[in-house]
């Protein structure tokens, strides 16, 4: 075994532009073979004087000029005599330094190793050349496999145990755009992009050390700007004695596949983007902006960040569409969006929630800054003359603003509902207004409470409470008299009030708010006193004309009650208890969060009691049928969250096991269909 690592230049039978024809030239155990392909490359290596210990060369390649260089280098030479030099050594070789001859026609592994051993012993380079060199045999198999590797479209390389490149085919040379003369002898990692080298070396070392087979994906370092993504395999390389001498790797160019993947990813991203955008304005659509609200709400709570929400509603937009046409309406929407984008910051999030409503998420600013932004939008819209073709008009917007800190919302849904209530306040105050959820805006005058002031305040409150109770009792008596005329609706208002109270308490409302909803529920049908009895007591379903008359009763109720100051809070509930989340209710055709939450509670209680009561044109609906109707119409006619809380009340009060199981199943279905959080 050599006492030290020996480096031999190895060049046998030569084909211009090709590879050695005698098989792979490999290194191992004390011997490093540097394969060269041309005489020029051999001369270049000899001229480098970089510590080569010897030369293995075909005698056919040796010319006088080359002999002089070899002689000058004083390198030991193992010379392979070709067939036409079988009987004598040409005189040209006699001037070479120490030479060992091996005749090709007698070439086998034993004779090759024996000649190399003699050469090394004479030169004092080692006693036993335990080197791993495949016999350079002229067999069909050797040439066959050599030609296959050469013609493969895949890049093929062999490395020694240290990772040094000792063989490469033409396909790999083309991949790295470098001839074998420059690449052989370099570490394989030099052809891998820097950020993936350490992983590749680690995996290749594991292949050599543990014998694992590796399928890998990496990127070859090439002159091309994008380099070359490749898919490959690696496995151990053994010699004829089954000794480990390195690894064998293949490389497949997958640039085309990666480009198609990139195009597909880009297309998928574009499709997702389009599915998340409103087709007209390009803003985030209803589903996506609500998703952003949920994400920003949770993030701001966890990070204790400021978060403000605003909902912008175009006043009387439906009337504008009806009067001027959809094209004019689209132009209005586009221009309003322009004012919104101009007023907010580039990173603020804005989406089209409904046909005429926009939600804006303002991260990191408080309500006072948001109010200034909202006021800027309101003023610019109000001052603008909207024009399309030969039509023009002026319009206004109403804006509700809520901040996370003061809304006290526990859920994103609650945050949105608080902002919706602020918007409703802006609309009920005459529109073209910006309203903040904390109605008073901290501007109340604080009066120092002396004992006398406190006593008078208490007496006035008690007097007001007494007056309100007396009025309500009188109003209830009037309603009771009205309902007594129709045996089918007797006690209806009391039942609606009872259900409304249970729902409100289930939702966690304060007792003051529960009382307000109770009073509104008891008074919700007082306007029916002005409906002709032949319509009110009709024993069959109403025709369209009669139904139009009945639809006026919420406004009549408000007309009757509006002068009673201590019922101001109840009036929006009474007026809106027949509105629907999908905008198909009456009298205003309000949508979603425009409808007061109290009115939506009364609507569910009203519908449930009506279904459970006998009617002249149908019998009483069963509990199961009534609950099914509520669930099926949730999201369109009814607020799903309110239906959920009514079912929770019914399930808790139900004593029959089969009905309790039915209600539990309906609750589960409702939660799944509408993504309802169990939190209040």
Task: Please characterize this protein's 3D structure.
The protein contains 25 helices and 17 strands. 48% of the residues lie in helices and 15% in strands. The strands form 4 sheets. Strands 2-1-3-4-5 form a 5-stranded parallel sheet, with helices on one face. Residues 14-27, 127-144 and 440-449 have low confidence and may be disordered. It has 680 residues and is α/β, with parallel strands linked by helices. It is elongated, with a radius of gyration of 45 Å. The longest helix has 34 residues, at 451-484.
Key attributes of the depicted protein:
elongated, 5-stranded antiparallel beta sheet, single chain, 680 residues
Number of helices: 25
| Overall pLDDT metric | 78
Strand order of the largest sheet: 2-1-3-4-5
Distance between the termini: 83 Å
Q: How many β strands by DSSP?
A: 17
Largest sheet: 5 strands, parallel
Approximate strand percentage? 5-15%
Cα shape: elongated
- As residue ranges, the low-confidence spans are 14-27, 127-144, 440-449
Oligomeric assembly: single chain
Rg, Cα atoms, Å: 45 Å
Structural class: alpha/beta
What helical percentage do the residues reach?
40-55%
């Amino acid at each position: 075994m050599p006492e030290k690592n020996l480096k031999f230049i190895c060049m046998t039978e030569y084909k211009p532009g090709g590879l050695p024809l005698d098989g792979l030239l490999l290194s191992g155990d004390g011997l490093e073979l540097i394969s060269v392909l041309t005489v020029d490359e051999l001369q270049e290596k000899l001229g480098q004087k970089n510590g080569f210990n010897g030369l293995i060369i075909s005698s056919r390649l040796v010319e006088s000029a080359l002999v002089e260089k070899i002689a000058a280098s004083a390198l030991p030479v193992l010379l392979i005599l070709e067939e036409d030099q079988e009987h004598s050594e040409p005189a040209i070789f006699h001037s070479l330094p120490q030479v060992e001859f091996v005749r090709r026609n007698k070439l086998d592994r034993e004779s090759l190793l024996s000649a190399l051993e003699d050469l090394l012993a004479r030169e004092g380079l080692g006693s036993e050349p335990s080197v791993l060199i495949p016999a350079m045999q002229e067999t069909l198999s050797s040439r066959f496999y050599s030609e296959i590797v050469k013609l493969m479209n895949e890049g093929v390389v062999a490395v020694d145990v240290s990772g040094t490149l000792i063989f490469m085919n033409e396909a790999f040379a083309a991949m790295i755009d470098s001839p074998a003369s420059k690449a052989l002898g370099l570490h394989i990692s030099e052809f891998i992009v820097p950020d993936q080298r350490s992983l590749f070396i680690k995996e290749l070392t594991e292949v050599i050390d543990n014998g694992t087979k590796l399928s890998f994906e990496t990127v070859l370092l090439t002159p091309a700007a994008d380099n070359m993504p490749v898919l490959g395999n690696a496995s151990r390389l053994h010699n004829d004695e089954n000794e480990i001498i390195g690894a064998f790797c293949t490389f497949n160019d997958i640039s085309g596949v990666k480009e198609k993947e990139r195009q597909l990813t880009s297309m998928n991203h574009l499709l997702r983007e389009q599915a998340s955008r409103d087709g007209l304005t390009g803003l985030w659509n209803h589903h996506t902006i609500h998703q952003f609200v949920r994400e920003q709400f949770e993030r701001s709570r966890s990070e204790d960040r400021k978060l403000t929400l605003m909902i912008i509603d175009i006043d009387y937009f439906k009337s504008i569409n009806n009067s001027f046409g959809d094209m004019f309406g689209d132009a209005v929407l586009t221009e309003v969006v322009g004012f919104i984008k101009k007023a907010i910051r580039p990173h603020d999030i804005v989406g089209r929630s409904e046909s005429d409503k926009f939600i804006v998420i303002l991260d990191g600013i408080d309500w006072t800054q948001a109010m200034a932004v909202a006021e800027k939008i309101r003023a610019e819209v109000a001052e603008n003359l909207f024009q399309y073709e030969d039509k023009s008009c002026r319009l206004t917007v109403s804006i509700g603003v809520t901040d996370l800190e003061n809304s006290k919302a526990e859920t994103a849904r609650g945050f949105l509902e608080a902002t919706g209530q602020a918007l409703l306040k802006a609309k009920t105050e005459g529109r073209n207004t910006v309203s903040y959820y904390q109605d008073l805006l901290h501007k109340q005058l604080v009066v120092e409470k002396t004992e006398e002031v406190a006593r008078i305040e208490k007496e006035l409150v008690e007097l007001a409470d007494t007056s309100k109770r007396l009025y309500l009792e009188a109003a209830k008596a009037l309603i009771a008299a009205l309902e007594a005329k129709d045996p089918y609706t007797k006690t209806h208002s009391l039942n609606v009030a009872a259900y409304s109270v249970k729902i409100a308490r289930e939702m966690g409302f304060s007792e003051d708010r529960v009382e307000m909803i109770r009073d509104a529920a008891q008074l919700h049908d007082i306007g029916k006193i002005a409906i002709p009895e032949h319509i009110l007591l009709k024993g069959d379903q109403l025709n369209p004309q009669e139904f139009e008359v009945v639809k006026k009763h919420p406004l009549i109720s408000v007309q009757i009650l509006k002068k009673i100051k201590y019922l101001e809070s109840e009036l929006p509930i009474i007026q809106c208890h027949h509105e629907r989340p999908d905008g198909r209710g009456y009298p205003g055709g309000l949508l979603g969060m425009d409808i007061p939450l109290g009115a939506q509670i009364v609507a569910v209680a009203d519908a449930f009691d009506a279904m459970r009561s006998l009617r002249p044109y149908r019998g009483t609906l069963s509990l199961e049928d009534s609950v099914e109707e509520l669930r099926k119409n949730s999201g369109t006619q009814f607020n799903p969250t309110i239906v959920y809380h009514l079912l929770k009340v019914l399930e808790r009060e139900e004593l029959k096991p089969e009905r309790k199981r039915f209600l539990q199943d309906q609750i589960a279905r409702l939660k799944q269909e509408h993504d309802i959080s169990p939190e209040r």
